[in-house]
Amino acid sequence: MAGVVSGENPSWTGPPADVNTEPRAEDPGERRTRGRRPAPSPARVGVEIGATSAVLGVVMGIVWYLLSPELTGQVVEDGVVTPVEHARELFDQIAIFFILGAGLGLVLGVFFGVRHRRRPVTALLGLAGGGLGGSLLALAVGVLLGPSIGDEAPGTEVTLPMELEAPAALFAWPVVAVVVVTVMSLFRDDRTPWVWNGTSSR
Questions:
Q1: Is 60 left (phi over 0), alpha (psi -120 to 50) or beta?
Q2: What is the dihedral of CA 160, 69, 101, 167, to 10 degrees?
Q3: pLDDT grade for 171, boundaries at 50, 70 and 90
Q4: Which of 40, 145, 187, 201 sits CB 3.0–4.6 Å from 44 for a disulfide?
Q5: CA-wise closest residue to 159 among 78, 70, 69
Q6: Which pLDDT score, from 0 to 100, does residue 120 have?
C-alpha cells in the first residue's frame, strides 16, 4: 500500500565509525590511589615522631636506671677509685642502654615505616633526629635519677653516678630505626617514590 509509512527513521545510519564505544581501561595508578587519604604533611610527621621519641626517651631513661647495676667506689684524695672487679657491672650498664635503644629503634622503625610509608624520607629523617634526641634524653634522665657524690671523706665507699662510658651507644636507637625504614621502603611492592614535599615525579 502506498499510504503505509515505515516506522524506521531513514536518516539514521548507525553510530559514527570513529566513535569508540568500548569502555576505557582503568589506569592501575588510579586504582591504587582511589579512596586513599592524602598523606600527612612533613611537619606533622616530624612532630609526631619527635613527640613519641621524647616520651619514650624518658621511659627508656627510667628503665635504664632501674635495670642498671649499682657501681660502688672508694673516695680518695684525687677523686673516686673504682675496683677492677666492677668492670663487669660497668659493661652491663652500657649493654643495657644499647639494647634498650636498639629495641626502641626497631619498634619505632617498623611502626612509623608502615604508618608513614608514603613519607619514607620524612620518616627516616624524623627517626634519625628523634632517635638521637631520645637517647640523649634517656641518658639525662638516668643521670638525674642516679646517685650523686658529695664531699665525702677519703676512704668512704660511695655509689657511683650513672654514666655512659661508651658514647657510641647513643646511636643504637637512630641507626637501627634508619636501617629498618630504609629496608622497608626499598622492598615495597608499589615502589613508593621517595619524596619530601609529597609530589611525585611519576
A1: alpha
A2: 30
A3: very high
A4: 40
A5: 70
A6: 82
Cell readout for 148 is: 650523686
Of residues 38 and 12, which shows the higher confidence score? 38
- Tell me how far CA of residue 73 lies from CA of 90, 138, 140, 156, 160, in angstroms: 12, 24, 22, 8, 6
The grid cell for 77 is 684524695
Q: What is the residue-wise DSSP string for 63-117? A: HHHHHSPP-EEEEETTEEE--GGGHHHHHHHHHHHHHHHHHHHHHHHHHHHHHTT
Q: Which helix (H) or strand (E) holds 30?
A: helix 28-33
Tell me if residue 183 falls in helix, strand or coil: helix
Helix (H) or strand (E) holding 42: helix 42-67
Q: For 45-88, how does the pLDDT look when each residue is reduced to its tens digit (9 = 90+)? A: 889 999 999 999 999 999 999 998 887 766 666 666 666 666 67
Half-sphere exposure of 9 (CA within 13 A, CB side): 4
> What are the CA-CA distances from residue 63 to residues 76, 82, 125, 160 (Å)?
31, 24, 26, 18
| Cα–Cα dist 147/79, whole Å | 16
The percent of residues in the chain predicted with pLDDT above 70, rounded, is: 61
Cα–Cα dist 194/52, whole Å? 23
Contact criterion met (CB below 8 Å) for 173 and 139: no
